[in-house]
Write a structure and sequence with these properties.
By secondary structure, the chain is mostly beta strands. The protein is 5% helix and 39% strand. It is built from three helices and 29 strands.
């Protein structure tokens, strides 16, 4: 009996056609809890050689041209790509809002005067910055004054050296320091060498050499470097400078509700000559054998005045004496009025002092020590001949033994023999003495 046979070939062909035409699965909408661990590979992030100009929030892109560890970007806000970095990721560094660069490593390199201390706590890095007090002055160091103090230990009264802390690296025009000499000055040419930078001439404020009483051991002197020499600010000055006598000191009280002590000044004025049938010297001549200054002047048409002429030969001198105020205290100021017939003539004068006690313990013939009271150093007269000038010395210490009530002997002497002023006419000496009222 014949039985019909079913063939399977058309069915297989039909199923293959259906499968070939089937739509691919959209994982975003047609899947749930997808596990890609078994996939041979995945590419979940799109790539680009440059960042697109626009983006939507939460887009992620791999910048193929970026450095490893700093090439993954996320769009956190519209059109704003933000680099992502974990360990080893780059950090963008800005300077006042301007980007400098992005690197995985940051190096803190402090400049001069800054010290950085960086510690790792295990959970964070602590960065602490402080100033280096060897470069930057603090309020405390300025108040202490140590940074501008130069203390001498040279044991020389003409070639001083001193050291600063920190060490001075170079002389700078305009610099001011506080200098404390270790020995009294000898007068005349003087130098100061700071931290072995080289000896620089040291002069008074007017540029003249200091006298023997201008630099005292242990005193503090502000010193200014003008680019060529050091100048002692304040103190004795020479040349054609004029200065008024000192004013009395202010009243001070000693102790709460205690005694009030008032100090003032006494001025001793001593003209050197007078006109009486010619110029007559009013001071005493020095002992026999010593050159004396001579009378000069008294030739005025209107104002007739006598002077004592001090020539540049023989070191002429004159002397005078008086009793010091019994309430004498503190230092003295000296003013010597002069004129020079030679325009811009140079000369040097000094005023020596020696005292005799009035208690009967010593004879009234003390020895003079050169430049023991006031030395003007090298003085340059005014540029016009016979114009008045004043030599000034302030804050002068009285020599040992010169106390209130003692008799002071002054010797006024020309100390140079090579000055260009063949003679200098001295008119008057004023000594301002501080005393208790």
């Amino acid at each position: 009996m014949f039985r019909p046979q079913l063939t399977r070939l058309p069915l297989a062909i039909g199923l293959a056609g259906i499968l070939a035409a089937q739509t691919q699965v959209d994982l975003r909408t047609q899947s749930k809890s997808v596990d890609f661990q078994g996939a041979s590979m995945t590419r979940p992030i799109r790539t680009a050689a440059s960042l697109p100009g626009t983006c939507s929030v939460n887009e992620v892109i791999l910048l193929t041209t970026g450095a490893a560890g700093s090439n993954l970007y996320v769009c956190l806000t519209a059109n704003n790509w933000v680099p992502q970095g974990g360990a080893g990721g780059a950090v963008t560094i800005q300077n006042s809002g301007t980007a400098v660069g992005a690197r995985a490593t940051q190096n803190f390199a402090p400049g001069s005067g800054i010290i950085s201390a960086i510690t790792d706590t295990g959970t964070r890095l602590n960065i602490q910055q402080t100033i280096d007090t060897s470069f930057i002055a603090t309020k405390a160091s300025v108040q202490a004054g140590g940074a501008v103090l130069c203390q001498s230990a040279s044991a020389s009264g003409s070639a001083y050296t001193c050291a600063m802390n920190p060490t001075l690296s170079q002389y700078v025009t305009g610099m001011v320091l506080n200098w404390r000499p270790d020995v009294n000055g000898t007068g005349g040419p003087t130098t100061l060498n700071i931290d072995i930078l080289g000896a620089i001439p040291l002069a008074k404020a007017d540029g003249n050499n200091p006298g023997s009483s201008d630099i005292l051991a242990g005193q503090m002197y502000p010193v200014w470097y003008d680019g060529t020499i050091f100048r002692i600010l304040g103190g004795a000055t020479g040349g054609g400078t004029s200065s008024a006598p000192s004013t009395p000191a202010a009243i001070t009280s000693v102790g709460a509700g205690g005694t009030t002590v008032v100090t003032g000044t006494s001025e001793w004025h001593a003209p050197l000559a007078a006109c009486s049938g010619g110029a007559t010297v009013l001071w005493n001549n020095p002992p026999s054998g010593v050159t004396a200054a001579t009378g000069d002047g008294c030739t005025g048409t209107n104002a007739n005045e006598g002077y004592a002429a001090f020539a540049n030969t023989g070191n002429p001198s004159l002397q005078t004496s008086f009793v010091l105020p019994r309430t004498l205290t503190g230092r003295a100021d000296v003013y010597v009025t002069y004129l020079s017939p030679t325009a811009s003539g140079t000369f040097s004068v000094a005023m020596d002092a020696s005292c005799t006690s009035a208690d009967g313990s010593s004879t009234n013939d003390p020895i003079f020590v050169s430049s023991s009271f006031f030395s003007a150093g090298n003085v340059t007269a005014p540029a016009t001949a016979n114009q008045l000038g004043t030599i000034t010395g302030t804050g002068i210490l009285w020599p040992t033994g010169c106390v209130g009530g003692s008799r002071v002997h002054f010797r006024l002497i020309r100390t140079d023999t090579t000055g260009t002023a063949a003679k200098v006419d001295l008119s008057e000496v004023v000594v301002v003495m501080r005393r208790t009222l």
